[in-house]
Amino acid sequence: MEEKDFEALQDLLENNRFNVLHAVLKEMNSVDIADFLDGIDDKFLVATFRILPKDVSAEVFSYMDTDSQEHIVRSITDSELHRLVEDMYIDDTVDFLEDVPANVVTRVLKATDAKTRETINRFLNYAEDTAGSIMTTEMVQLHTYLNAEQAIEQIRKTGVDKETIYTCYCIDDKRHLVGILDLKDLLLCEPKTLLSEIMDDEKQIISVKTSDDQEAVADLARKYDLLSVPVTDKENRLVGIITIDDIVDIIEEENTEDFEKMALLNPSDDTYLKTGVFRMSKNRIIWLVILMVSATLTGQIISRKQALLADFAFLISAMPMLMGTGGNAGSQVSTLIIRGLALGEIKIRDYFRVVFKELRVAFCCATVLAVLNFLRLLIVGGGDIPQYLIVSAAMFATVIIANIIGCTLPILARLVKLDPALMAGPLLSTIVDAATLSIYFAIAQFVLMR
Amino acid sequence: MEEKDFEALQDLLENNRFNVLHAVLKEMNSVDIADFLDGIDDKFLVATFRILPKDVSAEVFSYMDTDSQEHIVRSITDSELHRLVEDMYIDDTVDFLEDVPANVVTRVLKATDAKTRETINRFLNYAEDTAGSIMTTEMVQLHTYLNAEQAIEQIRKTGVDKETIYTCYCIDDKRHLVGILDLKDLLLCEPKTLLSEIMDDEKQIISVKTSDDQEAVADLARKYDLLSVPVTDKENRLVGIITIDDIVDIIEEENTEDFEKMALLNPSDDTYLKTGVFRMSKNRIIWLVILMVSATLTGQIISRKQALLADFAFLISAMPMLMGTGGNAGSQVSTLIIRGLALGEIKIRDYFRVVFKELRVAFCCATVLAVLNFLRLLIVGGGDIPQYLIVSAAMFATVIIANIIGCTLPILARLVKLDPALMAGPLLSTIVDAATLSIYFAIAQFVLMR
């Protein structure tokens, strides 16, 4: 939908043309309707929500942002709320309840029947970001003694409430997960074929436990191209599934978390524009302070070389450039390694291969940089040839060391079960800065103070 | 599959126990078989590939890495090659052919029949990373005058060769895309219902053109929770689909590209361990050189203040810490803005909201940092109180400026159609460094040289 389409709808709303609006909304995609509702004034929200076709209102609700959802729940009647919750998938209800104040949660739970309430409560108890907290219970469960025809008949009868019918789960009498079946296989085989003959059996089942991290779910779905991942409890009983649309959201969430960690930000669940100033400051300040205090080290390295600096002022002017280049080289390496580790392309055991490769790459880059830097200094001027040589030699050494540190720290972090994403540019620069200055002054002292 | 399972299979291979191996492979997932084949010695590769069950060998092949694929194609007979290509989905064949030398492409094309060859050739002509280059032609196409029962019958007959049957595409006599239909709706409705009654009609169709960028495909699938995205030509004729498993791969690919651009690396298609040293050096060196040369500016700012620095040596020792903090604050902001832009959460028109928010956040962070820095200097020592005040005031100003630059550059990049991801930590640090030093010396001069 374009901006101008939304504006036309807004006009209808402000002129009270609800019957036209109703006709337009009926033809729209639920995602676009939710976008529209999120953008309109609160005073129109409930009235517009009420004119939505009954069969899409629950879906639209689950795509809306938390503020609008909360406003609607606070404004509709108990019986409307009851129908809404019944029509929503469990995972969407739980998603919503996790983000609203306790009194809204209480009201929603009161408006639902006992069985749904019990399920919701159980889900709310799973730790955040675990498979249990994001799964849904609306899946197709088939007994293995059915044949294909009977199975399809059962899907026809019960499928309308299921979040997906395309992957079916075979269970035994005690609800243990014993097989997985694509609807495609079910539809294409002979009608009398027993499910046990065509299902993927236990050895081939790919599943997760309720307590598994959501990242593990996403990794499995990506690797094995699954449309949904089954979730089992400790006794291997099927308790839920996670569908690919939620998995795509998890993948983006985990990537965002990596981006944020790499910039040493505390990860935030909200979007940028929705996060408050104080909360945002808190997410940033801790690491800024830690790194600032760590930079005491570079200050002291410089202080100790006062004599050298007083005599050769040119050396000072080259410091930022050297530290900058070291930091940039380190960022490049660590980004590649962090990403490789996240996607499973690099494993801890590859460390020596990685170091060996980085040494060779560093040698190429360092040589080019040192030579170009020497030429640059010749042109810009400000010192003499020995000083230019010192700066270029320091640059060579800095790039080599930055590359080694840049590939070692993320792998080391993985080894001690820290998140490798923390070992990115900012943290690395602070460490590489200190190394750079030490080398620089050592070379300068060796050459100039003989 | 665990490491040790692969080792057990390797043992079977080395002891020529092919019949046992065959039995084990038959029970394994295609992805795991491909992983196993990628890891074994080339001399065993073709023999092992040949004992795979016929119904999975094409799928296994499409999950293997390019080196192994090429080795197999070079070693099997023409008739084996013919069968392999017939069994593979078009998009997987095209993926493979895009990565191998021309003589392998020629051999594969020779081994296929005229119709497949023509399709492959057409696909190879689409520009890289467009919808056309990643789509497949194996989709379910239904005429709108069918009823549900007839449609299901057609799917049963032709579905085995389709990459997905879960989303069906309705076409008219000229192959124009006129409707989209979930298999779920088809299966759950009355058998005699006409497709035209239950399909999403033209106004609701979400589709892409062959020339659209793959990122746009991923954005649509993520936003609208689609299992596949239809691809049409300029005349709105249906020419292919892109399925969710490929879209998940695109999402990870686009994220990797953003991570790489943010570290100012030229994006690379290969995994870390597969990219050669020379190629890798080339991907990194350009930006390292550009940034190094830009740092000439910081050198010159320092040179001009020689007198100041000679008299107040303490000021020099605080330089790295100040530049580091400015760079870190800028990285944090730009990461959030880049990510927000990529996910569509921040738009260009939000610029003033963003700046206003950043000013407030910067004020909070800068105050905390300036105060803590003053205390730190009191403890560490090395200068006097006026000098500590100068450093803390400069720190305050630096953080404010870093935040403004950090949110402005990515949005500015988007405005002029550059990739915002380039405006991340490394590039930003170089700019912020120069600003920091200028402010620092201005404050120092004002206080000390009165």
Describe this structure in words.
The structure is a homodimer of 450-residue chains. Chain A is of the alpha/beta class and 450 residues long. In chain A, helix 8 (90-99) crosses helix 10 (114-125) and helix 21 (351-380) runs antiparallel to helix 22 (385-415). In chain A, strands 1-2-3-4 form a four-stranded mixed β-sheet. In chain A, strands 5-6-7 form a three-stranded mixed β-sheet. The radius of gyration of chain A is 30 Å and the shape is elongated. The N and C termini of chain A lie far apart (73 Å). Chain A has 23 helices and seven strands. The mean pLDDT of chain A is 84.
Keywords:
450 residues, four-stranded mixed β-sheet, three-stranded mixed β-sheet, 7 strands
Rounded to an integer in angstroms, the radius of gyration calculated over CA atoms of chain A is 30 Å
The pair of chains with the biggest contact is: A-B, 114 and 114 residues
- Share of β-strand residues of chain A: 5-15%
Helix percentage of chain A: 55-70%
Q: What can be said about the biggest beta sheet of chain A?
A: 4 strands, mixed
What is the helix/strand order of chain A? HHHHHHHHHHHEHEEHHEEHEEHHHHHHHH
List the strand order in the largest sheet of chain A: 1-2-3-4
State the oligomer: homodimer
Number of strands of chain A: 7
Distance between the termini of chain A: 73 Å
Average predicted local confidence, pLDDT of chain A: 84
Query: Unreliable runs of chain A, pLDDT <50, ≥5 residues?
Result: none
Structural class by secondary-structure content of chain A:
alpha/beta
Anisotropy-based shape of chain A: elongated
Number of helices of chain A: 23
